[in-house]
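Worked example (supplementary).
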Amino acid sequence: MRVVRLSSEIDFDGWRTAARRLRAEGVAPDAVLWTVEADLFEAAPVETPSPAAGAFTVPPAFVDLARSVVLHRSGERFSLLYRLLWRLEREPRLIENPADPDMARARDMQKAVARAIHKMHAFVRFRLVETEPETYAAWFEPAHRVTEAAAPFFARRFTNMTWTILTPDACVAWDGQTLKVSEGADPADAPSEDAQEELWRTYYASIFNPARLNERMMRQEMPKRYWRNLPEARLIPELVETAQARAAAMVAATPSPPPDRVLKAALRHARDGAYNGDLPTSLDEVAAAAQVCRRCALWRDATQAVPGQGAAHAPLMFVGEQPGDQEDLAGLPFVGPAGQVFEAALKEAGVPRDRTFVTNAVKHFKHEPRGKRRIHKTPDRGEVTACRWWLDAERRLVRPRVIVALGATAALAVTGKAAPVGESRGRPLQLPDQGGGQAQLVVTYHPSFLLRLPDADARERARAEFVGDLRLAGELAKLID
Amino acid sequence: MAVLDIRRKLAILADAAKYDASCASSGGEKRDSVGGKGVGSTEGMGICHAYAPDGRCISLLKILLTNFCIYDCAYCINRVSSNTPRARFSVKEVVDLTLNFYKRNYIEGLFLSSGVIQSGDYTMEEMVRIAKSLRLDHDFRGYIHLKLIPEASPELAAEAGLYADRVSINIELPRDDSLKSLAPEKDVGDIKRAMGRMRLAIDERAEPARKAPRKTFARSQSTQLIVGADAASDGDILARSASLYGAYRLSRVYYSAFSPIPDASRRLPSSRPPLLREHRLYQADWLMRFYGFAQPEIIGEGEDLDLSVDPKTAWALRNRDRFPVDVNTADRETLLRVPGLGAKAVDRILAARRQARLTMDDLRRVGAVVKRAQAFVVAEGWTPGAATDGQHLKARLVEPAQLSLF
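After joint prediction of all chains, the assembly is encoded as:
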């Protein structure tokens, strides 16, 4: 039997040095006793860690695992780790097997240590011990020997404070520059109560909702072992005991009538009713009224109606299909990817955008949620028909000489008839007078159609046709010579 | 009006804030106070500094600036017509309280909300002043969550984003028609437009392609839906969530069981909060976000979730033809749909089965809930036989009622 004495309960380096030597010498795990105590096993020859000659490698994940398992309070931690190291020689992929019993045990210990560190970050309560300079101290009892491991977090968070954390295992002190570790302290060294604790307890009691009492959940996350060092925990028994009665009283109590003054103020703030359906007489009115439109169900999942935008009496009007994701969020037409294609083509055709009016056949974004994205869906005939009311209002108010329908949905909205773009594009068509004066129609592709064409040649051809159609419309509207 | 001391104000304004379920302090950018003048850090994962006896995490100092409010939302304790005691903090009081609590390691930061006083803009301005003072005057680097007032100007909302890690706007009621009757002054359009603008602002600032040094800006936004204050079904609620996640990239939708409030409105039923229903909604929400389920698979609009089993088990019971699944061969997507297998257990199964064929004992060791999974899986030395199609399978999977949930 070999007996190895380590220099402290968390002496990872000592364990590593000794374990390396033992494995190199072929000493089996059940032939090693690990100890920290000085006076045990006096009968057996005790050795302290000394380096071995040869070297071997282990996966880095094992070193990380061992570093945290060493901090566990379990007495078997050193021998479990040596057993894993021993087995790694014959089973190099052991570390990747979460189902192995030794690995599962080590992983549980690693998890318990990580949890103890996390809980220490959470449950340390500093007390002000000196005001000049501002100095804080805390007494804490960690579940495992994690004081040194948990300390850097406090140094990063409270860099510009002076503080000390005392625990039975070790003490750490921060002076604004360096962390100093010293021996464990006694509960009698704990700092005395801080005046803010009364306020903190007030907060704790007030944020608790007695109608939702769930003691089991509280104890699971804030185990009772931590309570004696938490100033707020002394309120728990009473809060728990009175909760049911408080909740029952709230349910039973009849509401008291509000004061008159208050009712009058509330009435003053009541909003106007929804849109009443009269014909809008200005573009601003169209924009405001479309927000409360309920002519179809698309408003429900959309952010807002996206009305047309542009010169009030533009000679040229572009009608797209519907707002997309970006347009829906911004409340403006043609600002997304298709809008950029459109903008570039317009420039190439020489049509000044600020003298045109840009709108959509359907004013709300039709889509389907798919995780964190929204997938575009083509509006159906019913939705296009319902929304023509708004497009007609815009046509009546803008009175354009030329309308460009971008895509089949737009053509349907402008003419009321469905027709494939390929058959009608590239030439001026006459529109019947709808009270907005004589207007000509040019049908062309929707810019997102260009984005979707997979073949580069076809895309370039379609783009050239698109620019040509825009130029034709600009000429008809006398915006370009 | 009598002058209230800070302790009384804190009692009133924390009590008024407790119906907001959100307390998360996660997802902020990584930073600490090294090289700064003040205190504070955020390291990605949030920390719960205490737990109240309701089992809820206390991570942030969650308070209202004031509980005076000009609105009359029926479900809210702070509505204008409630006779609850009123109070208002000054900017300095909130700043001092936050720093004093933070330095003693009670909290991760501040979650500030408010009743609407005078106007949306006025209220938002006061809230922004607090965040600004913490960040600029005190170099505070802890977490700040600001509630946006939907009708406040877009410029103020954008300024809030400069100082906050997260912003949120509560929709509260899953159905727009109930929003109209229970919160007559709230305009769902205002809320959605404000969320839309915020998503564009967050997206724009998060673009990695931007060359200019990125000014820090809020990383995420969230919202809350109240469960049980109106007639919305679970299906309605989840459909609303699915739409919100897609439209505004919310990091979370919180579900808050409607809780009886002191001096409740007559427009609402007085009853105990449906906590189990809230729990099932969170489970269903998780399935949508991390387990690849689409909302219609979990539940249709107008329908309610089965309270007796979790929604994944309910789905498996409805789709028994897809089971049993062989844990030694099935792909990740399929394993994620097995009751009793969480995302972590699935990852471990995928790692462990590269070395050996897995038995039921192995499944237990990788963290699977074997009792729940056994009727739905095949493993080395295990087949469920007729159990998958057994008539009484559901009865065996029903969780015993927990006494603490009522």
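Two points are worth noting when inspecting this output. Residues 164 and 173 of chain A are 4 Å apart (CA to CA). The longest strand of chain A covers residues 439-444.
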